[in-house]
Write a structure and sequence with these properties.
alpha/beta, about 180 residues
Length: about 180
C-alpha cells in the first residue's frame, strides 16, 4: 500500500479539518490508512459535524458495532460547535449553496454534504474538508489545497481532496445567480 501526498503541503495548512463519510469509512476500515493519516495530520484538529456523525452511525443497529464506530469517532474527532445560531447560519448557507449548485449544474450533493459545505463557509478560524467525493464540493465554490492518493491493498487508488471554501468564488457564483431575472 502506498500513501502519496505532498506532506509538507498538509503541514502548512492551519485550521480545523472536517471529513466526509467516504473518508471516515476508509479511516475506520483500513488501519494502515488510519495510521498514515494520523502521522500526516499530526498536531491538527479534527472536528466532526453532528450530521456527518449521524450519517456515519445511521445504519448501525448492533450494539457491538455501534460501540466500535462511536469509540472510533471519539478517539479522533472533537465535536463541532452546534447551537441554534450556528445551525441557522449553516442552514441558510446550505440553501444558498443548493441554489448555486443547481444554477451551475452541480446537482447531486446530499443534504448532509450541503450542510457540511455550509459549515465550512462559516468565518473565524480556517476550516478544511477532506472528501473522496469532490463533485459534491465543486470547484465553483471550493479550492483544492492538496490531494491525497492512497493505493489500497487490492491495488485500487483512492483520491481524496483537501478543500477550502473560497469567498471569492462564492461571491462570483452568487453574482452570476443574481443576474438571472
Amino acid at each position: 500500500m502506498n500513501f502519496l501526498i505532498n506532506g509538507k503541503q498538509i503541514r502548512l495548512l492551519d485550521g480545523y479539518f472536517y471529513c466526509d463519510g467516504d473518508f471516515l469509512g476508509l479511516l475506520l476500515n483500513d488501519e494502515n490508512f488510519l495510521l498514515e493519516v494520523k502521522e500526516l495530520f499530526s498536531g491538527k484538529t479534527f472536528l466532526i459535524d453532528s450530521l456527518t456523525r449521524l450519517e456515519f452511525l445511521r445504519d448501525v443497529y448492533l450494539p457491538k458495532q455501534r460501540k466500535i464506530k462511536e469509540e472510533f469517532l471519539d478517539s479522533i474527532f472533537d465535536e463541532a460547535i452546534d447551537h441554534q445560531e450556528i445551525y441557522r447560519q449553516i442552514k441558510d448557507n446550505a440553501l444558498i449553496l443548493s441554489r448555486l449548485y443547481a444554477h451551475k449544474g452541480r446537482n447531486g450533493a446530499s443534504t448532509v454534504d450541503l450542510m457540511l459545505a455550509a459549515r465550512i463557509m462559516l468565518g473565524g478560524y480556517p476550516s478544511f474538508l477532506i472528501t473522496g467525493n469532490r463533485k459534491h464540493f465543486p470547484s465553483i465554490i471550493f479550492d483544492t489545497m492538496s490531494v491525497i492518493n492512497y493505493e489500497q491493498r487490492d491495488g485500487e487508488m483512492r483520491i481524496f481532496s483537501v478543500l477550502k471554501f473560497s469567498k471569492d468564488k462564492f461571491q462570483k457564483a452568487l453574482d452570476d445567480l443574481k443576474q438571472i431575472k
